[in-house]
Design a protein that fits this description.
Blueprint: H1 4-27, E1 37-45, E2 56-65, E3 72-74, E4 81-84, E5 88-92, E6 98-101, E7 106-108, E8 114-116, E9 121-124, E10 127-128, E11 134-139, E12 144-149, E13 158-162, E14 165-166, E15 173-175, E16 181-183, E17 196-199, E18 201-203, H2 209-246
Antiparallel strand pairs: 1-2, 3-18, 4-17, 5-6, 5-9, 5-14, 7-8, 9-10, 11-12, 12-13, 15-16
Length: about 250
């Protein structure tokens, strides 16, 4: 059987993986702060006796992340914040580790814990931020949280904590299966005073629906081509078998 059957099979396999990554991006076009993924592939030349120089295997070497910024969307909601420029909001992942996100749709649960819309605890100077019973909450451009307690005068605003805003080297960041960013050495990143927030605003997904649909069509065509090549390999094999029988 001609070896190009295996080359076509490897190509079809990697195209399916790329299609899965692209489909996930399309599913998160409306997800706040989502960063699109892309499949990184490697072409491996097949070396050996009697093998032509055109024999190349396709191989996925990992998934990368597009860290470019999404569109800023003004919401008018007090607890909505977006990172202005470079930087991230530090949160506590479900496994207890420290992670980073640009999803700033925040809420306060029944116990006073400040969370993201997906339930992740927002980290402050000394861990998760807990708010006392209050009548008003304000989040400053630098992440400072001020509250007015129950029954206090409108001027009685007290600084409670500060959202930990960080700006690690992008080369150190990797995206986990939970969609959160982490640093490769898993060490907590120090707060960066230069990172600022935009209040009453959210950052949209940087995944583009039009680009994703075009890529889906392109990948589908490439997959069809690989399947045709596998069919050709089968036909060649059958023809060779018929010639051997004649001989």
């Amino acid at each position: 059987m001609d070896r190009f059957l295996y080359l076509s099979m490897s190509g079809a396999r990697e195209i399916m993986r790329a299609q899965a990554v692209n489909a996930n991006n399309l599913a998160n076009v409306s997800t706040t702060g989502y960063k699109a993924d892309f499949a990184a592939m490697l072409q491996s030349r097949v070396i050996g006796p009697g093998i032509g120089n055109t024999r190349i295997y396709a191989q996925t070497i990992g998934t990368g992340t597009d860290l470019s910024r999404g569109q800023m969307i003004h919401t008018g909601r007090d607890l909505d914040v977006a990172v202005h420029g470079d930087g991230w909001i530090a949160v506590q992942a479900p496994d207890g580790s420290e992670a980073y996100t640009r999803s700033g749709s925040l809420r306060i649960d029944d116990t006073g814990l400040l969370q993201t819309e997906t339930g992740l605890l927002v980290l402050g100077n000394d861990g998760p931020i807990t708010l006392p019973p209050h009548e008003q909450v304000e989040i400053g451009d630098d992440g400072t949280i001020t509250v007015r307690g129950l029954g206090q005068s409108p001027q009685a605003l007290n600084v409670l904590d500060r959202i930990r805003l960080v700006n690690p080297d992008p080369a150190r960041l990797h995206k986990g299966e939970d969609g959160l960013l982490r640093v490769t050495d898993n060490k907590p990143v120090a707060a960066d005073p230069n990172v600022q927030l935009v209040r009453e605003t959210l950052e949209g997904s940087n995944a583009n629906a039009v680009d994703g649909l075009v890529k889906m069509i392109s990948l589908s065509r490439q997959f069809e081509l690989q399947v045709k090549m596998m069919k050709t390999a089968e036909e060649n094999d059958q023809a060779a078998t018929s010639l051997m029988r004649i001989g």
